[in-house]
Every structure is written in C-alpha cells, then in structure tokens.
Amino acid sequence: MFNMALRNLRRCWQDYLAYFLSLSAITTTLNLFLGLRYNPFISAAISSRDELVSSSQVASVLILLIGFNFAWYSSDFFLRKRYREMGLYNLYGMSRTRIGGMIFSENLLLGTAAVVLGSALGFVLSKLFVMALLNILNLQYAVGLRFSIRALRDTALYFSLLLSPIVLRSTWLLARYDLASLFRAEKAAQSEPKLRRWLGFFSLVILLGGYALALSSSVATVAVNFLLVAALTVVSSYGIVSTFLPWIIKSLRNRHALSWRKGRLIAWSQLEYRIRSNVNLLVTISITGAAAMIALGVGFNATQLIERQNNAVQPWDLSFVVQENDARQDSYHSLVLEKINAHGLTLTAQSIQAVLRYNSRETVAGSAGLRNSEDTLYYAFAEFLPLSAFPGSSDQGRTVPLIQSNIRGDRAAAPQWLPLPSGEELQLQESNELPPVNFTYHGSYFVFIDDTRLTALRALPGAQTLVSYNYQVDKREALGALTKELKPVLEEHEFHSHEFNAYYVRIFRLYLLLGFLVGLVFLASSCSILFFKQMAETRADEARYRALLNIGAPYRTLSGVIALQTLPLFIIPLALGVVHSLVALNTMAVVLKEDFTLPITITILSFTIIFLSLAALTTRTYRKAVLRPLST
Amino acid sequence: MHTTSEHDIILETRRLGKTYNARGMACQALSDFDLTIRSGEFTAIMGPSGSGKTTLLNLLATIDKPSSGTIQFEGNDLATYNSPQLSAFRREKLGFIFQDFNLLDSLSVEENIALPLSLAGMPPVEQETRAAAVATLLGINDILHKRPYEISGGQKQRCAAARALASNPALILADEPTGNLDSRSARELLASLAALNRDRAATILMVTHDAFAASWCGRVVFIKDGRRFAELRSGTDREEFFSRIIDMLKALEGESNV
Predict the structure, then answer these.
(1) HSE-CB of A363 using CA atoms within 13 angstroms
(2) What count of other Cβ atoms lies within 10 Å of the Cβ of residue B116?
(3) pLDDT at position B203, please?
C-alpha cells in the first residue's frame, strides 16, 4: 500500500508540490515558534522569557488553526480531482478500505516529509529568527545554531493533530460515495443560481451605513458601535461579493459594446463564475486581511505611543526617591554613579528634584513632582490638591492656570470647573504661556503653582517633601545588567529604570512581531487556497483554452484573458480589506486622537505587495498550465 | 498573405506525411497523402480507428506540423507562416466543429457563437448581427440566451456549427461532429451542414467513421494506415451513395483482414 501511495505521489508530484511546500512552510513556522521554548539563547538573553514562550505558544496554536484551515480546503480539492481515479480503483476491485488506506498512506508520507523538511528548515532558520527577535527586542546577544529534539517532537505532535482529522475526513468522504458518484463528481456543470439585484444594493447600503456609523463614532459610542459595525461589515461584504460584484459584471457583460471586444467575454464570464464559486473564501480573506491590517496598524502605533509616553512620563533613565531627611541618599547617589561607570556607560545629565505629596497618594504623587528644583513653577495633579492650598475667597483666587494632561491636548473638552474630593470646585483657566508638561495620564488635569503656593502647600497637614535623584546615560538600551544590580538596593525607594519601560515596549513589540508572523502565515495560506482552487480547475480549462487556440485565438489575447479572470480574485479581497481597514483606522484616529498615517501606509503597502505577488504567481502558473502553445 | 486562388482550389496537400517519435520508436501516422479541396465542396474523410484521420485534420488545421510534404491554402504554403500568422489563418480562414462541442459553459449560446468574432477583434455590433444571422440559419434563435448546459446535444452541436460559420470561413473542419449525438440530432445537424453547403456554398471537410454521416457529403475520401485508399463521389441518390460507402468500407476491412 505504501508503494502504491509513493507511486501516486510521484505520478502527481506537480499537483502535490505546491501543497507539500505550503505544508512545509506551515511546519517551518510551527517549528520556529515551538522551538523558542527550548532555545538556550532565548533563555539566556531574555528576562521576559515566560511571556515570550507563552505568546509563542499562542501563536503556534493560531498557526495550527490556520494550517488546519488550509489543509482542509486544499485536501478537498486534491481529493475531488482524484474521484475518478478512485472510482477506477474501485471498479477494478480495490476495496474502499484499501483505497482509504492508500489515501491515509499518501497523507502519512506527505505529512512525514513535510515535518522533516519543515523541521530542517526551522532548524536552519532558527538562528536567523532568534537573531531577528533579539534585534527587535533591542537585545544584543551572540546567537548560535542548536538542534532541539524536543522542538522536533512538538512539531510532529502538533502537525499530526492538524492532519489526522483531515485524513479521516478524506477517508470518510471516499467511503460515502458510490461508484457512479465518483465518476460523475468531476463533471459538475458550471450552473449559476439567480442573482438578486436588490440584495446586492441592500448589501452596499448596509456597508455604507456601517462605515458612516463607524466614522461618526465618538469616544463614548465607539465601544457600543464596534460590534454592530463589525457585524454589518461581515454581512455586507458577503452580500457584495456574492451578489453585487457578480451583478456589476453581468451588467457589463450585457453591454456588448464593452464586453465583446477582444475575447473579453471569456474573462468576464469566467470572473463572474469564479467570484461566485469562491464567495466564502474571498470574504474570509477580506475580513481577516482587514483585521490583520487594523491590528498591525494599531499595534505599530501603540508601540510607538507607549515608547513616547514612557519617555514623556519618565524622561530620566534612572531615578530613585528618598525622604528629604534620609541620611543614605548620598551613598545611594554615589552607588548609582559608580555602577554607571562600571558598566561602561557615560552620564549625560543628572538632577536632584524636590517632590511634594499629600496624604500619601503615592501612586499619583510620584509623578506630581517638581519639574526642576530651580524653577519657580511646579506641576501638580489638580484632583489631589486641597483647595485650601489656594488662599483667597474670591473666584480669582481660586483660579489656577490649566495644563492638559493629554499630550495632544483636548482643551475644548476641559471642564471649566474641576470637582475636588472635598466637594468644592476649582475653576480652571487655560494658559498658553506656560511651558509644556510631560505628564500624559488621560483624564487628569495639571495645575501650575508658584513658590508662594508651594510654601503654603508644604505647610499643610499630610504634606510630605521628598527628593528625587535622576540620571541620564548615553546608552539607555544597555541598562539591563545595571538595573539588575541596582534593583535590590533601591527597590524600596521608588527605583525607576528605563529598562522597566523598555520591558513593556519589548513585550508589545514581541506581540506585534508574532501577530505579524501569524498574520503573514494566515495571508499566505488563504492566498494559497485561492491559488489551489484556481489550479484545481486547470485540467478542465486546459481543454477549453486549447480549443480556443485551435480556433485561432491569439496567445497574447488569451494570456490577457487569463490575467483578467485571475487577478481580480486577489484584488477584490485586498481592496475590500483595505477599505475596511482605512475606515476602521480613520475611526480610531478620530477617537484616540492618534495619527495612523504611517502604520496604515506601511501595512497596506506590505499587504498589497504580498497580494499582488501571489496574484502574479497564480496568473503565471495558471497561464503555463492551461496555455501550452500549439506545436507549430 | 497571398489570397488569390488558383481556379477554385481552396486546399491542396502534396505528399503530406507525419511521423511521431515516441520513446525512440518512429510511427508513420500519415504518408504521401494528396488531397485537393475545391470551393463549395462537402467532403468526408473516412477510415478506421488509427488510420490517420485525426492526424490529417490536425495538420490541415495547422494544429500540428507535417514531417514531410506541403499544404497549400488558397495558393499559400502554410509552412511559411509563423505562429501569429497561423493563429490569424485559423481565425480568419477556418471554422471548427468538434465532436465534444467545445462550448464554454460560462457563456450563453449567443456569446459562444460570437466568440471567434470577438477574438478576431470584430466590432461588437457586427458580431451581434452575424451571430443572429447564423443562429437563424441553424434554427437556434430561441435558445440564444441559454447556457450550453441548458440545451440538448443536438442544439449544442448546431451552436458549435453556428460558431464555426460565424466568421464566414473559407473552410469548415468538422471532427466527428455527430459522434456525441443521437440519431435524430445527428440527422438534423447533417441536414443543416448540407443546407449550408448547398445554399451558401460553404466548403466543409468532415472527418467521420459514420457511413450515414458521410453519405450527406458530395465526396468521401477513404484513408487507411495513413495512406489514401480510395475516393467516392455521390450521385443523385443518397441511399445509393450510402450503400457504396458501406461496400467501400467492407472492401477496406476486407483488405485489412487479408
């Protein structure tokens, strides 16, 4: 049986090659992710290894699901292509059990070969992958090449989980068909259900309605609108692809002056048929493509935002806070300077600031410090200021200059009167003359206070004056080891290192990278399914195009016809996905007051390049398969 | 391209031969085959399986290249044509009717008929006029907007005939056109082809192994083992011609059995 399976694979190697390579690519990615857990260089280089391992496990499961979806679809085509062959085997006396066994053996051989090739590629690429990962995480570490038998074991296990249900289904499908059905299966006519024009227009209206709802969302309504807009987008995308686009093509076909030129009618008719027979796939690609583009756009932007906010909130690379009268502050200061030198870093700036707090509001007051000890203006969180700090009973006396907490500043939304915990209200007055504030906490309002008010504040009960030591170095990305050494000593003194912020940024980048890779694998597998579906039809199309060549259709015309019937299958989901993501990101840009131009441009460009490359590859392969020149 | 014909000869082959080489073995499919087709003739090529009928048709259709000999079409040697010229030749001078129809399921009957005209770059309005005219001629006006899978085998073949005729070709090549039809549909198709030949002076070359189909032609050329075996011309009575064809087939078989 194995010999027969091997012979079959050899005989149909051209059909199976692309499928096998795609399976191997999925196995390679799986192996790369699963291998991270056992990679000794990752363990040594990354302090946040647990997050890396758990997120790579999640990514592996996602890839497994994507791989399953891909293999399920693809195996279906291959099986359908071979129904007649199976019918012949059955006709000549081969039992269904034996045929099932043969299919099982073929899949086993193919799967084993994919695991071997995928793991070998995974092993070769693992060094590059880990280097890229560490580079993205801003970690410098020498990476070597190590083979992990456990990664191979996990890959084989995951892959067999992926393939088993598919093999069982194929065997079951074969057992279900009677002999006549097997012979008839290949000859299904290209019949078309009736188009409902109203449904197409209704879908367009729903889609535009969903877009309008998304674009008109505010901070308050965006969460409520999200689910509704998502549902409307999915439903209307389905309606547009299944009804509206075919209706447009049909209308164009009916305009003979346009569609009957240079054999275009073949392309239009084939395109209409192909769109209608691939609706689910096209809609899935457009929606998930849009989701991936949105996620990447937001993720990319969020990474930058986190870095920007971290830098704004904590402009210093190292800092610690001590009581004003703490005797150890000089020794701590000396220790920090000494460690900076010992780690080959150069001190580029330092400051010692006073910090004022009320009623031990540690979490907030830690940031509400003095900007610079020499300044006569101080920042403070308005919400936590006692009103008594602002002497005078007149409205004027209670008025303080307002600085927005938000980096971008939404001054129009700021209340004129700020309610205080005491039940009183503080009148806020905007000032454009004050220097910008670094605080970025949303929803907080900062006020400036002068020396006189500071003195008054310090005298209030519950007031506490602290001293903050701040340092800046030349290479903030090299603070890892230094932070490890200082942390045990300064932990209880609100020790801060840029390394702590960088950690979260790294984790975020890691998620972004894994998300990007998973998105990429998904995209590649979806497009591969589209590719296989086109290729599955080449056998029937080859005879059709040969007949056209026979009757004198110019090769170039038919070549153009093939491009016209294949390229839109990739362009339609891409265009839908791009429009969906542009609307979504535009909505988010308005709601979050963030600029998504750069990330969305990068993601859309990347997706467009990938889609168009695959479209060109499909067109080329399809053309080569169906348009063999006549022997003349 | 030279277009003036010598008298009314459309196609002429001289010592036409084709040898296939497969796995080092040479197989002579056609040898020294001479054939002359005049304008307005309805000719059948008959012979048993493997006699070289399809090879001959492929060579005449320029789908395949001869190993020896020449094919002249309207006085032009087809061997001198390059690939685009051959495509143009097939498009403009030949019409094809295939045994398995070769209609595109995704196109309507009307679109199928107009397809060669569309590929030839004819203005759409003219395509519509021509498609309607040939559809009337073949009696398929009422099914123009149907798809091939919605019509009968006979209607499909008449649609294919209409497609072959639409470009007003100098020669229609029909490859076993009744092979997939029931007897009634076959009779209707043959009547249509005969009418086209009679009323519009269409020149038709039909490859068939069916004596009944061949009896509708004015001339039958018999081929055996790649060589021209005999030729019969019809008289006034089709039944009598049919009998002569049967007799010739018997002679052909008899010689094979010797």
Answers:
(1) 1
(2) 28
(3) 94
CA A450 from chain center: how many Å? 47
Answer yes or no: is pLDDT of B46 > 50.
yes
What are the strands, taking DSSP E only, across A477-585?
496-497
Residue A196, both tokens = 């409902």
pLDDT tens profile A47-91: 556 666 777 777 788 888 888 878 887 777 777 777 777 777 777
- Are A552 and B89 inside 8 Å of each other by CB? yes
Beta-carbon separation of A265 and B111 below 8 A: yes
> At residue A497, does pLDDT exceed 80?
yes
Q: Which residue of A has its CA nearest to B163?
A: A551
**By three-state DSSP, how is residue B178 classified?**
coil
User: Stretch A109-121: mean pLDDT, rounded?
Assistant: 89
Contact A480, A499 (CB under 8 A): yes
Are the C-beta atoms of residues A444 and A383 closer than 8 Å to each other?
A: yes
Subunit contact B63:A555, Cβ cutoff 8 A: no
Neighbouring residues of A359: CB distance < 8 A, sequence distance ≥ 6 = A384, A462
Whether the full predicted model's pTM is greater than 0.80, yes or no, is no
Task: Using alpha carbons only, give the angle B107, B112, B114 rounded to the nearest 5 degrees.
Answer: 125
Q: How far is CA A258 from the centre of its chain?
A: 41
Split at pLDDT 50, 70, 90, the class of A437 is: very low
A256/B149 touch (CB, cutoff 8 Å), yes or no: no
How many helices and strands, by DSSP H and E, does chain B display?
8, 10
- pLDDT above 50 for A364: no
Give the C-alpha separation, A471 to A476, whole Å.
11
Summarised one tens digit per residue, pLDDT across range B152-186 is: 888 998 899 899 888 889 999 999 888 888 888 88
b or e along A27-48 (b: 16 or more beta carbons within 10 Å of the residue's beta carbon)? Answer: bbbbbbbbbbbbbebbeebbee
Q: Mean of the per-residue pLDDT values for chain A?
A: 75
Give the C-alpha separation, A519 to A40, whole Å.
27
Mean pLDDT of A95-114: 82
Q: What is the dihedral of CA B12, B160, A567, A247, to 10 degrees?
A: 150
Query: Complex ipTM, two decimals?
Result: 0.76
Nearest residue in B to A255, CA atom: B124
Measured between alpha carbons, how far is A632 from A549 in angstroms, rounded to an integer? 11
- Bridge partner residues of A323 (DSSP): A466
| A191 contacts on B by Cβ (under 8 Å) | 147, 149
End-to-end CA distance of chain B: 47
Phi first, then psi: what are they for B94, rounded to 5°? -115, 150
B132–A contact, CB cutoff 8 A: no
Q: What distance lies between CA B22 and its chain's CA centroid?
A: 27
Residue B173: the pLDDT is: 93
- The tokens for B168 are 């007003």
